[in-house]
Design goal:
Elements: E1 11-12, E2 15-16, E3 21-24, E4 34-43, E5 59-61, E6 67-69, E7 76-78, E8 84-87, E9 90-91, E10 97-98, E11 101-106, E12 112-116, E13 121-125, E14 131-136, E15 143-148, E16 152-156, E17 169-173, E18 180-185, E19 200-202, E20 209-213, E21 217-221, E22 227-232, E23 258-264, E24 270-277, H1 301-304, E25 305-313, E26 318-325, E27 328-333, E28 337-343, E29 349-359
Parallel strand pairs: 3-22, 9-10
Antiparallel strand pairs: 1-2, 4-29, 5-6, 6-7, 7-8, 11-12, 12-13, 13-14, 15-16, 16-17, 17-18, 19-20, 20-21, 21-22, 23-24, 24-25, 25-26, 27-28, 28-29
Length: 361
């Protein structure tokens, strides 16, 4: 994931911190700061005859400005205006074919890396999206961030080996036809954090990077996969519900909050996007009150959730400001941007690129 991050020093100005320090973020410290939101490209663009299948697992932005969308059944490429360009590969088991591709990742030389959960392999495509080579993977990796290609790639997933099971993060080399695991780690004790569904990665290659987890916690890591520090927060809008019922109960219990995405701005600020219950969350349930079984089409996620946007200055370790928006953010983009998912009045899934800016600082 290409992003403009910041390089962590032992001392930043007058602020020092100890490696591994856990920092509790309090309320906003910049009363004059305001978050401004602007709508960017719409994917697919209006009038397009090629739609997306539903909410994507991830979306990336390459050097040419194209959007790489983890769509189904195949990843898709859209230009800066949201117009469809092409699909990546074909469905199948041969070279350049995918069974269950999880995420397309832009590489430094304008080629693309595609992870395939179904076949436990990674495929490299050239700048024209043609097959170059494939790499066998030891596990089903659901997300990745290129630190230094091809010998340092951060992936998240569970490995079926006794010495690595329970760790969600792994540094791997993809220089050969088989991935080589360099190191495995996690934010908590082994086995205390197994699910990778809510692990996100953001940061500039060759610098520190951030992962986010539920509950509200961000970890900063160095290139050796060691924790530099972490941020935790317990805001009053955060809802901690039953872990077995993350969506709550129809019209009775609101959904649990979770960190949906984190982006690093060009100025080094951290943009944190958390899904939390909308004021009218009850209307997000299309099933009757007290229903014991709910079909997927009886949940309107865009009505169920809002997004709380918060901005953290990692130099002074402070929350600057926050803002609730009605859009449901599902993925980050570099430069303090994010992707919101919506369903049009005609029932078609769409993605909106949201651009954020702090004013009054």
């Amino acid at each position: 994931m290409k992003s403009v991050g910041f390089i962590v020093l032992i001392s930043l100005g007058s602020t020092c911190f100890v490696a591994g320090q856990d920092i509790v973020l309090q309320g906003a410290t910049c009363p004059s700061c305001e978050i401004h939101v602007r709508n960017g490209a719409l994917i697919p663009a209006s009038g397009s005859d090629h739609g997306i299948a539903g909410e994507p697992r991830a979306i990336h932005h390459d050097a040419a400005g194209n959007f790489l969308v983890a769509d189904r059944p195949l990843p898709a490429v859209y230009d800066q205006q949201g117009r469809f360009v092409t699909s990546l590969g074909r469905v199948g088991g041969g070279p350049g074919e995918f069974r269950y591709p999880s995420i397309p990742i832009p590489l430094p030389d304008d080629s693309v890396l595609v992870l395939d959960i179904g076949q436990r392999r990674a495929t490299v495509l050239d700048p024209y999206y043609q097959f170059v080579r494939q790499i066998s993977l030891p596990g089903a990796f659901v997300s990745a961030s290129v630190r230094h290609w091809p010998d340092s790639v951060l992936v998240s997933g569970i490995l079926p080996s006794p010495e690595r099971f329970g760790w969600p993060l792994h540094l791997v080399s993809l220089a050969s036809d088989e991935a080589a695991i360099r190191k495995s780690a996690g934010p908590d004790d082994r086995g205390a954090f197994v699910s990778t569904d809510r692990v996100g990665v953001t940061g500039q290659p060759d610098t520190t990077f951030w992962t986010h987890h539920s509950p509200y916690r961000l970890y900063e890591w160095d290139s050796a996969l060691e924790v530099v520090r972490s941020f935790t927060r317990e805001p009053d809008w955060w809802i901690t519900g039953d872990p077995n019922l993350p969506l709550g109960l129809p019209r009775e219990r609101p959904p649990s909050s979770y960190v949906a995405a984190v982006s690093v701005g060009a100025d080094g600020l951290l943009w944190i996007f958390s899904a939390t219950a909308a004021p009218d969350w009850e209307n997000g349930w299309l099933a009757p009150r007290g229903s014991s079984e709910v079909r997927p089409d009886q949940v309107d996620y865009e009505t169920l959730y809002d997004t709380m946007v918060e901005v953290v200055d990692p130099v002074v370790n402070e929350l600057l400001t926050s803002k609730r928006i009605p859009e449901r953010v599902v993925a980050p983009l570099p430069g303090g941007r994010a992707v919101a998912y919506l369903v049009s009045s005609a029932g078609s899934p769409q993605l909106t690129i949201l651009e954020f800016e702090v004013k009054g600082r």
